[in-house]
Amino acid sequence: MMGEDLGVVAKEAAVREVAKLSPPLPELLHSISSIKAEYLSWQLENDAQLSTMVVEEQVEQAQAGLASLSTSQMAINQLCENFISIERLCQECHTLIDYHDKMQLLSNARNNLNTTLKVSGGGML
Fold this sequence. Notes:
One of its GO terms (molecular function) is SNARE binding. By secondary structure, the protein is an all-alpha fold. The protein has one domain. 92% of the residues lie in helices and 0% in strands. The chain is rod-shaped and about 155 Å long. The mean pLDDT is 85.
């Protein structure tokens, strides 16, 4: 039995030593509460930073989108101006086409006159 008594005594001595090294339970509970509050504060701070980063990214994307829309609007305006110029040139060509027969006769008359002047020894027009 003596061996068992020594084991119990050693166990009790170890428990007393651990109890001396450990802070009392109320202090441990307060420490846990403090650590929990610190963790929650840290988590809230990180959530706020993350929200700010997300908002900043969204603002940057929106600004890039607006810049693209502005560039697109300028390209569309330029296209409209080009189409207006094409329409004007088509109208001018249509007018010229209306006089094509007369222009062809005038060109033929000029060529004939130049040929006649060349053959007769005169100058060219």
